[in-house]
Amino acid sequence: MLKDVTIGQYYPTGSVIHKLDPRTKILFTTAFVVMLFFLNNLWGYLATFLILATITLLSRIPVGYIIRGIKGLVLIIMLTVVLNLFMTPGTAVATLGPLTVTLEGLKVATYMALRLIFLVVGTSIMTLTTSPIDLTDGMEWCMRFIPFIRRYAHELAMMMSIALRFIPTLMEETERIMKAQKARGANFETGNIISRAKNLTPILIPLFISAFRRADELATAMEARCYRGGENRTRMKQLIFEFRDSASLVLMVMMIVGLYLTTMIQIPLVFPI
Amino acid sequence: MHIEKGEFVGIIGHNGSGKSTLSKLLNAIIFPTQGDVMVSGLNTKDHENLWTIRQTAGMVFQNPDNQLVATIVEEDVAFGPENLGVPPQEIRERVDRALAVVEMQAYAHQKPHQLSGGQKQRIAIAGILAMEPECIIFDEPTAMLDPSGRREVMETIRRLNRDKDMTVIHITHFMEEIVAADRIIVLDKGKVVMEGEPRMIFRQVKRLKEIGLDVPQMTELAYELRSEGLKIDDDVLSIEEMVNALCQ
Amino acid sequence: MSVEIKNLSHTYSEGSPFEFKALKDVNITIEDGSFIGIIGHTGSGKSTLIQHLNGLLTPTSGSVLVDGKDIFDAKKAELIALRHHIGLVFQYPEHQLFEETVQKDVAFGPKNQGLSEEEIDQRVKQSIKMVGLDFDAIKDKSPFELSGGQMRRVAIAGVLAMEPSVLILDEPTAGLDPRGREEILAQIKSLHSQKKITVILVSHSMEDIGKMVEKILVMNEGEVVFFDTPNRVFTEISTLESIGLAVPEVTYLMRRLKEKYPEIREDIFTVEAAKKEILKVIRG
């Protein structure tokens, strides 16, 4: 189940997209996400689709892998669609008992679904093509330009990277503890939601204790290796902004402007309103 | 207690005898309530010396999982020198050198959680080496490993001491790991109770057993045979020596 | 309780690029009341094997028969009941402690078995004593304020309190100091002799295994290499070395001594036995 979540996973293929500076990718993704909320007609979504499709092809990540990432969000998308479908007032096109589907509802629901899907696909492509460590470095750099957060940029990045380092370790640990408690007759498979939740105590407490112990030992080990925060710290790998980054930044600006221009198109597509 | 440069010192004692406390004092993770610890002539109590001491006396801990910080092996090795503010190009060189010393170059781009326990421990050692210390303190680095992992790590430690003239302080529960040490220090209830060459220490089989410690199998056998009246030296440490003793 | 393992195979992540065959056609029978040792390096399939014995893992093919009954044929409830008879102590079992007091923690297993209050109390008391701890002194303490060795024993008591007929221990001495190791092993030995339960001990230490068990199961790459008495297994030095294992030092010594004393026995693996044999040969 957890294996199906593709957000945050890294899929190395060595493509052009992978080689881009993480800062380029973070900037583009941010601009892209903001732009998604300005789109007001299907031309815009069509253009978005084309852009995403091109990037996906360039990244050489299997399409199936990306689609799997959306599967995890089917429930949320469905819920949004259903809510918008029935809750938007306007011209009725069909009735289902007490519920009415309106043309406006149909439109909003479609837009919302597309927006969510593109949002997930867009951000997944960023994480799939950027190694966690590059992503953290890129974020650390970007955070330097945000007031308030600037002071904590290094700490936040360090926390993120430690979290990424320990996720697999803690997952294994959870499995081990679960098996150990099952061997003592604990039952996680049957019973109602409340009793199941209560049955989690024997897993959660040891897991917390272990996480604290690990944190304590890690802190000691980090101190022993002369860690003292971000000051005077150097990095082995420097982020280097190359020609391909400048080139893609230009392309990026063009795409964003292009997307913005679609909002001006007056010719309706599919929806007459 | 005094430890010379280039020495290989083994420290033994049961759990709670003060071994870990001692090791943390050496690395200035904790500070003495009384007395002084001097590392290369620097007092650990003096706050100005803190980072120099931690860089001079590196430390490898017991749990291989809880001392690796980064998600990629080479990034983890770079962590120490990065903290010291070493220029990027030099970090690169140090990391490559350190990985070569522990023979883990092939794993530079792997994720730590995909490695075996012994390999993780070797990465931890490389991380310390990249800080270019003069001395490494090993706090039970083999306790959580299987025999092959233990072998890998012990070979690495011995090589560091022999070829790189690294001062090694090795804390362990496995007596066979320190049979070849220059000196052994035995701790009990926070005090040094014995100190000397392995041969001198292990021949005191009875005393060691009293404080809850083991002796190498051959030493124990020699002791047993002697107590049965067989004329045999009581400082036998290896199979070779035992064969010689019995086949005269 | 006898345990019979028939054509057992287990493949992790079957069909994915990470597919890994952890067990390949394992066939062994563990007699009721026997003491078995399992050795093999990390990744040899030991852990996978023991997790099948109480149904924590389901075989890819093959079966496990407990007292002649296939446990994977059984219904879920039966499987859970079966786990009560087969106690499994994982590596570093102290990491599973979670209750406020030692008494409550040890009672977790018996409570899951649905026993009466008195029965639970009695079992808790008994099993804490069995692992060599003072029940009255320790029962109200938090398990987390104990020493490492004590925590481990409390965790083992937690499994013993379920009164299993088969007790499986995965490296119960890992990370302990020499005295702690010796104490735990002595308790396991007395458990086996007093309670007549079947004990399966997974260990990396040839010395410990040699001292304690009746039969050794040697695993390598998911297959059974040997399943025989220590005397027989330890004379197969070259095969053991080829799979990355070693024999106890005294066994190597005996082999070396054979050059001078051809009559000396080679199937010796404890200091005690070596002493007797050497004295016998030298004194004639």
- Give the overall silhouette of chain C: globular
What's the gyration radius of chain C in Å? Answer: 20 Å
Helical content band of chain C: 40-55%
Q: Please report which band the strand proportion of chain A falls in: under 5%, 5-15%, 15-25%, 25-35%, 35-45% or over 45%.
A: under 5%
Cα-atom radius of gyration of chain A? 23 Å
CATH class of the largest domain in chain C: Alpha Beta
**Termini separation of chain C:** 45 Å
The backbone outline of chain A, from C-alpha atoms, is flat
As a percent range, the share of helical residues of chain A equals 55-70%
Note the main sheet of chain C.
Answer: 6 strands, mixed
Number of discrete helical segments of chain A: 11
Question: What's the number of structural domains of chain A?
Answer: 2
What is the domain tally of chain C?
Answer: 2
Question: What's the SSE pattern of chain A?
Answer: HHHHHEEHHHHHH
CATH topology descriptor of the largest domain in chain C: Rossmann fold
Order of helices and strands of chain C: EEEHEEHEHHHHEHEHEEHHHH
The CATH architecture classification of the largest domain in chain C is 3-Layer(aba) Sandwich
Query: How far from one another are the termini of chain A?
Result: 41 Å
Count up the helices of chain C. Answer: 12
Spatial strand order of the main sheet of chain A: 1-2
Give the helix/strand layout.
The complex is a heterotrimer of chains A (273), B (248) and C (284).
Chain A (H helix, E strand, L loop, with lengths): L15 H4 L2 H15 L5 H18 L3 H9 L2 H14 L4 E5 L2 E4 H27 L2 H12 L9 H31 L9 H6 L2 H24 L18 H20 L11
Antiparallel strand pairs in A: 1-2
Helix pairs in contact in A: 2-6, 2-7, 2-11, 3-6, 3-11, 4-6, 5-6, 7-8, 8-10
Chain B lengths: L7 E5 L6 H8 L11 E2 L2 E2 L6 H7 E4 L12 H11 L4 H14 L15 H13 L5 E5 L7 H17 L3 E5 L11 E6 L2 E6 L1 H5 L2 H6 L6 H11 L11 H8 L2
Parallel strand pairs in B: 1-6, 1-7, 4-5, 5-6
Antiparallel strand pairs in B: 2-3, 7-8
Helix pairs in contact in B: 3-4, 3-5, 4-5, 5-6
Chain C lengths: L2 E10 L7 E11 L4 E5 L6 H8 L7 E6 L2 E2 L5 H10 E4 L12 H11 L4 H14 L4 H4 L9 H13 L5 E5 L7 H18 L2 E5 L3 H7 L2 E6 L2 E6 L1 H5 L2 H6 L6 H9 L13 H13 L1
Parallel strand pairs in C: 3-8, 3-9, 6-7, 7-8
Antiparallel strand pairs in C: 1-2, 1-4, 4-5, 9-10
Helix pairs in contact in C: 3-4, 3-6, 4-6
